[in-house]
Amino acid sequence: MWWRQIFAVFLACYAAAAPALPVLNNPHGPEEAGKKVLYSVFSSRPKHLDPLVTYNLDDSAFIDQIYEPPLEYHYLKRPYQLQPLTLTQMPLVEYLDARGRAMSRATARTVYSRYTFNIKPGIMYQPHPAFAKNAQGEPVYQCATAVECKAYKSFSDFDATGTKELTANDYIYQIKRMADPSLQMPIWDLVSHYIVGLSELRDDITTLRAQYPGQWINLDDFLLSGVEQQGKYQFTLTLRGVYPQFKYWLAFHFFAPIPMEVDRFYHQPGLAEKNISLDFYPVGTGPYMMTKQNVNEEIVLERNPNYHDDFYPLEGDKGDLEKGLLKDVGKKLPFIDKVSFRMENEAIPIWTKFLQGYYDRSGISSDSFDQAVNVTVEGIGLSEDMQKKGVRLNRSLDPATYYLGFNMLDNVVGGLDDKHRKLRQAIAIAYDQQEYISIFNNGRGEVANSPIPPGIFGYRITKDKNHSIEEAKRLLAEAGYPGGRDAKTGKPLVLNLDTTTGGNADSARNTWLMKQFQKIDVQLNIRATDYNRFQEKMEKGNAQIYFWGWFADYPDPENFLFLLYGPNGRVGSGGSGVNSSNYNNPQYNVLFDQMKNMEDTPQRLAIIQNMLAIVDRDVPWASAFHPQSFVLNNAWVSNYKPHGISKANLKYQNIDETLRQQKRAEWNQPVLWPLICFMAFVLIVTIPGYRAYQRRLQRKIQ
Amino acid sequence: MTAYIIRRILYAFPILLGVNIITFALFFMVNSPDQMAQVQLGIKHITPEAIQNWKIERGYDKPLFINSRPGSKGYFSDTIFFDKSIRLFLFDFGKSDEGRAIAQDISERMWPSLAVQIPVFIIGLTVNIVIALLVVMFRASIFELSAMVICVAMFSISGVFYIIGGQFLFGKLWNLVPISGYLHGMDAIPFLILPVIIGVISGIGGGTRLYRMIFMNEIHRDYIRTARAKGVSELGVLFKHLLPNAMIPILTGIVVIIPSLFMGSLLMESFFGIPGLGSYTIDGIQAQDFSIVRSMVFLGSVLYILGLILTDISYTLVDPRVRLS
Q1: Rounded CA gap, A542 and A551, in Å?
Q2: In this structure, are residues A618 and A427 in contact, taking their beta carbons and an 8 Å threshold?
Q3: Which of A220, A237, A198, A243 is nearest to A117 (CA)?
């Protein structure tokens, strides 16, 4: 048959041409030869890129690669360890009495703590127009009016760039910025409480700004009593009292340096109206600089050509060698030349592009969970498909705690008396946290034995959990609800879970939750509202039982135990109270006050254990768990180790560009036969159609 | 006609004011300035002072509609509504609650929206009309019956299905186009192919049925019979005689949406990662950014009114009997 011959020729041509076909589905632009580029995603637009303003993990993914606070976390070691970043050594801490005399150690008489910082000389900023100077040494860009700046429509219009050396004054300038009320530093309450003179500086700035509204204020002209510059590379910072957790804040971008030149540059008239500000274009000394900032589609970080000497850690944690995390020890950082973050709103394209090799890394959404991993009796492992692709799975427990809490101000479930306590204890026994994790988190989590997550001092490995449902029912009866009914009125006990409306999984989760309470014959009513109404309920103390969570600011038990500290109660705090349960046990509060400023000593551990015993008895939270993050990396990505606290980890990562090119070509060969078949189908349909048309014309003529 | 257009433009002002009031009222019924501040400032460490500062800086510390506080600068003019809405009439969109200039964002994001919407509109319209004419040509045949069944099925399928199905087949299974994303200039073409194909295909069901109905109303008219009697071919009858005479109802549907093409598609842009004005609107709603929401609603209303005026004008162009007065 003639058509068989044609089909055979077609197949032969297709088979001959197919291997040579170019890749058609590459979503990235042409890559520069010899450059290592990492492709990643962001799903929500960064809110702020000013290191003083943002307190958001998503924003940190960008700016923590650009800004360098004095300290950083060791990339590989666990528990988390601080080390100097731009300093020659860890800050020297002195304790002072009321007269300013040095003390050998912190005691009850300690009134101030003085930190001395010694900055490494020779650290240079990234190239930036703020540092560009003319032959006379004056800034190239210094518009007095908006008209003068009219020519600069976008950031790329500033052609000239320059650099400068990092000095002590840059850190001081940033600390002074904390007092600027227009910036609304998120931890203003905390820093103004501790840093001497900061509140007074805010008053001075407010006064001057009222006199000269709309004008830039040079903060170098203001005095901050708690800060003293000792030389070009040294300064001291004085805190009120003793605050050991302060060292952790020194590794946070709030304390990154901002030079006066940068502040002046971005305050030129008319630039803010064109979205040219420090909140959009960061300037730092870090390994990367932002070269493209289009929050609607792509953010690009490129290697800072002026980056100072920085090397991959020489030692790691147990097991790091086997995981290949020590093959680049001692090598100069960073390894990757460019990082492209693409805006992606939907999970499906992210996952597909990861499988195609166009994204180097991906999380695992619930939709793609079964495709990515296998859950067996031995545990969770990569699926066969992923193993074939050479994908690596990185699992890490986040320094976070998600919990099901009681509102302790509620008449039914709240209160510290025996009756209400027993009701909460009964619910805590009935609630199966492990089952919740298995069903609704795909097994990604660990049942919490206390509010403190793993890797943080005071973490409790085990907890007595052998309670039966019978015991829960007995406790319920003792609480005044035998058989789930009020002993006085005979009415069934109906409790309310206040939550936000979510996705499709809500219905299954709600049913499961109701079953947990039914185990002890208690009815659960789900009160789902939108996010704003839910926040309002929490704010006013109208919620009864609720879900909440906390992600560590820093690896210290104080940062978790303060979630149950009475004065941090949510109700009446205006949203700032972190104690969402409004738990207020005087015993616990006293112990917290003792523990919060202690170093990690056995005495501190003993106090923490006492606090946890109180919490175990009072049960302000029915249950809790620590979430586990699963991250997939394609075979060509190396040196990736998740860090629960720090996001400044791109400089350590590496990629094998050759392997990536090879795999992409292999995985993305275009499949043309459906198109050819479609065209053939159109042709086949057209011919009889045309004949039918001709017949129709003939019929009409007849 | 000039007087008519001026009158229509004047009518637009109360409509736009009404739209503004309704948007404003709806938005603030579900969001209070305090909640907006909380969303913008993040989740951790939000102090009442920070919320108050945020509100003062963006003018959300004022009353919504009426300011009877002592020392107010105006009973109506010193309110959130006046500050945020009246300037829109001068197309002064101000800044988003994040601090970005909205006019700048619109000027950047309109191009990707247009890059998708214009081809979808032109190709979609052409395809729909051609298919509808073919159906009319083969009316009362198995072809018409099959085509109508397929059109009803296509019309009944959700737009999301087309998008996800298209991404799966063209982007994932056959590796023919990028599954999502966007680049500028000529590099945008590979990213536009799939959204345009899906935009066109998803519109075939509804479009073909509509135009078929319009054409069927015309096909038995005297002028069609006359054309046939003169010996004009069937294709000539359809394209030269039927189509121009059916233009009024077609224009009613299409001219009104031409200006709105500028606003993009919420669904398409979101799924394909196209940084247009559709996804900008969604971002604004999700972030509870009233400044973006009011600007986009206002702009949408203006463009819709403009579309209606253009529709009226287009009637006079295709049918000389129509006079605007």
Answers
A1: 24
A2: no
A3: A237
Classify the complex by whether its ipTM is higher than 0.85, answering yes or no. no
Phi, then psi, of A300 in degrees rounded to 5: -120, 130
User: Cβ A671–B176 below 8 Å, yes or no?
Assistant: yes
Rounded Cα distance, A27 and B190, in Å: 8
Degrees, nearest 5: CA angle A544-A550-A555: 145
Q: Closest by alpha carbon to A344, among B199, B166, B115, B279?
A: B279
Contact B96, B105 (CB under 8 A): yes
Contact across the interface for A345 and B279, Cβ inside 8 Å: yes
Whole-number percent of chain A with pLDDT over 90:
70
Angle formed at CA B161 by CA B155 and CA B164, multiple of 5 degrees: 145
> DSSP letter at A574?
T
Task: Point out the residue among A186, A343, A345 whose CB comes nearest to the CB of B42.
Answer: A186
Q: pTM for the whole thing?
A: 0.86
**Mutation choice for B interface testing from A275, A278, A550 by most B CBs within 10 A:** A275
By CA distance, what is A275's nearest residue in B?
B100
Tell me which amino acid residue A283 is.
V
The answer to whether B234 contacts A349, with C-beta atoms less than 8 Å apart, is no
DSSP 8-state code for residue B262: G
Are the CB atoms for A399 and A555 separated by under 8 Å? Answer: yes
Token code pair at residue B22: 């309704």
Q: How far apart are CA A364 and CA A361, in angstroms?
A: 10
- The residues of chain B scoring below 50 in pLDDT are none
Distance set, CA A59 to CA A50, A87, A127, A473, A633 (Å): 9, 24, 22, 48, 21
Task: Please give the mean pLDDT across all residues of chain B.
Answer: 87
Structure tokens that stand for A632 in this block: 């997939």
Q: What is the pLDDT of residue A5?
A: 62
Question: Bridge partners of A396?
Answer: A629
Report the length, in residues, of chain B: 325
| Residues of B (192-221) whose Cβ lies below 8 Å from A | none
Q: Token pair of B247, please?
A: 């233009």
How does DSSP classify residue B170? I
CB pairs under 8 A between A and B: 171
Mean pLDDT by 10 residues, chain A (702 residues): 59 58 85 84 88 90 97 94 97 93 87 97 97 93 89 91 97 97 88 96 94 90 95 96 94 97 95 89 97 89 97 93 94 96 89 94 87 82 92 92 96 94 96 93 91 93 80 95 92 93 77 94 91 85 94 94 94 82 96 92 95 96 94 96 93 95 93 90 85 74 50
CB contact under 8 A, B35 and A536: yes
Cβ neighbours, 10 Å, residue A106: 17
pLDDT at A416: 94
Task: Report residue A82 as tokens.
Answer: 């601080």
Return the pLDDT at B47.
75
B229 to chain A, any CB pair closer than 8 A? The answer is: no
- With contacts defined as CB-CB under 8 Å, which chain B residues touch A47? 40, 42, 98
> Nearest CA of chain A to the CA of B302: how many Å?
24
CA B179 to CA B211: how far, in whole Å? 32
Indicate which of B28, B110, B131, B174 best probes the interface with A, i.e. most A CBs within 10 Å of its own CB. Answer: B174
What HEC string does A141-168 produce? CCCCCCCCCCCCCCHHHCCCCECCECCH
**CA-based nearest distance B168→chain A, Å:** 9
Q: Which of B60, B92, B97, B100 to mutate to test binding with chain A, by most A CBs within 10 Å of its CB?
A: B100
DSSP B172: I
Is residue A643 a contact partner of residue A426, using CB atoms and an 8 Å limit?
Answer: no
Residue A236 tokens, joined:
């001291």
Q: Which residues in chain A touch residue B190, judged by CB atoms under 8 angstroms apart?
A: 24-25
Report whether B53 contacts A184 (CB < 8 A): yes
